[in-house]
Amino acid sequence: MRITRVVSAALLTVGLAAGPAAADSTPSPSPSDDSAAPTSAGTSFRTATEIDQGRTATANASAGDYLYWSFPADTGQRPTVRATVKLPAQHAAQTWQIDVYDGLRRRQACRYGAQTRTAAAGTESVELACVLRTVRAWSEPWANDPLPGTYYLRLTAVGVRTADLGHPVAAEVRVESEDMGGAAAVDGRLAEPLIPGVAMAQRQDEDEEDSGVPAVLSAIEPDDGWSSGRWSDRWVWTASGAMLAALAGIGGYALTRGSRRPRHVPPSA
C-alpha cells in the first residue's frame, strides 16, 4: 500500500508538471483587433512593412509590384503565412507567389501549402499559404535551418501579361505560429536574434566615444521577448522521467529484497 501511494503521488506530480507543457503545443493566441494593422507594404527588404503575428495586414498595389512585409519568429515556433489577393473583374490568367526569407535573407522552403497559384481569367481572388519549418534555437553555419529573428514575406505576380500590368489589386497577409514545445528543442542558442541592425548596435555599444542612438532598424519582437522558449517542456519531461526511474528502482528493491527475519529466528551473532 505504501508503494502504491508513493507511485500515485509521483504520477500526480508528473501530470501537474506536464500540464503547462502540453499547453505549449497549442497555437499562439491571435489578437482579434486588426485596427492597428498596417495598410501598406514595402517595395524591398529595407522598406518592408513590419507586422505582428496574429494580425491581418492589407495593401493596395498594382499587378507586377513586389510587396514586402516583415514579422518576428522565435525559437520553437512554426510560422504559417497566408495571403489573399483580390483581382480586378477583367484580367487574363496570372500566377501569384509568396516567398519567405529569414534574417540573413536566405529563402526558406515551405513544408507544405500552396506557395504558388495560378488564377484563371476572371477569377475574383487567389489564396496562397506557406507553412515553414520549425524555428531552431541554433544551427550549423552551413545549414539553411530557420533561426530566430526577423522574417521577410514577399508577394508578387510571376506570370502577368503586359496588358494586365498596372491593374489595381488588393492584398491581405496574415502570419500565425504554432508552438512546437520541447519536441523541437536543440542544444545551444544564438547570442542575438537575426534582426536588422543588431550587429551595428553592438558595435556602437562597444564604442565608448559614440554617443549616438543604436542603429536597430527593426522594432518588432515576440510578445514575451526573444528566446522565450529556452525553458521548454523538454526539461519537464526529462526531470519527470528521472523521478519515475528512481521510484521504479525503489519499488523494485522493496519487492525483491525478501521478507524480514522471522520472529522465532534469533539474530546472528
TrEMBL record:
Positions of the UniProt region annotated as Disordered: 20-56
UniProt biased composition (Low complexity): 20-44
Claim: Signal is one of the keywords in the record: yes
Alphabetic keyword roster: Signal
Annotated signal peptide: 1-23
Name of the protein in question: Secreted protein
Source organism of this protein record: Streptomyces chitinivorans
